[in-house]
Design brief:
about 190 residues; alpha/beta; 6-stranded mixed beta sheet; about 20% strand; globular
Length: about 190
């Protein structure tokens, strides 16, 4: 990761959907999400176009439903583990919406949003878990306020409104990978 908050080994696809973090906001949370566009379909560039406000609503009926949304994430982890970064970690991406973590509202202010290409009910790929764990460990090293108990799902910070990353996400496996990387001192 460079000093400007961009991953060196991720493809950059800069989203206009971001803003500054509030003054004094400490980066202290990682929020795991999922997304697939159209829903349940993987591959293609629809997610990138969606986060960059260039998704043609006429390309798929579902795109009509999301045509006016302006959202982003810091990083998307593709099914093969490759990462695409949309927003610098230093900036506030628009991934969590109305949210709260342990009494702290507006998780976008202090959180980093990572999207996995997937759905709530389809297994994620091993390559995604590995990439997510490596990325998470790098983030935790850069921002020590992010500990394993501050790794959460979108469903946990917006219950009743969001369900991702869903029951298909194996938290125990993911956390074991993060711990293994930390124990080996890799980055």
């Amino acid at each position: 990761m460079d000093d400007a908050g961009w991953l060196r080994h991720a493809r950059r696809c800069t989203s206009p959907n971001f803003g500054p973090r509030p003054e004094g906001a400490e980066i202290s949370l990682v929020v795991v999400h999922n997304i697939s566009l159209p829903p349940g379909q993987f591959g293609g560039d629809a997610i990138e176009r969606f986060f960059c406000n260039t998704l043609d609503p006429d390309d798929h009926p579902y795109f009509q439903e999301i045509r006016d949304l302006k959202v982003s994430a810091h990083v998307l982890v593709r099914r093969d583990g490759r990462c695409v970064q949309f927003v610098s970690f230093l900036d506030r991406a628009w991934h969590a919406g109305r949210s709260s973590f342990r009494g702290e509202d507006e998780c976008n202010d202090f959180g980093i949003g990572i999207e996995l290409e997937g759905t709530d009910d389809q297994p994620y790929e091993t390559a995604q878990y590995r990439s997510l764990a490596q990325l998470t460990q790098s983030i935790m090293q850069r921002w020590p306020a992010i500990t394993t108990d501050r790794l959460t799902g979108h469903c946990d910070i917006a219950p009743g409104r969001k369900t991702d990353p869903g029951p298909a996400f194996d938290w125990a496996y993911f956390l074991s990978l993060v711990a293994n990387i930390r124990n080996r001192g890799e980055n």
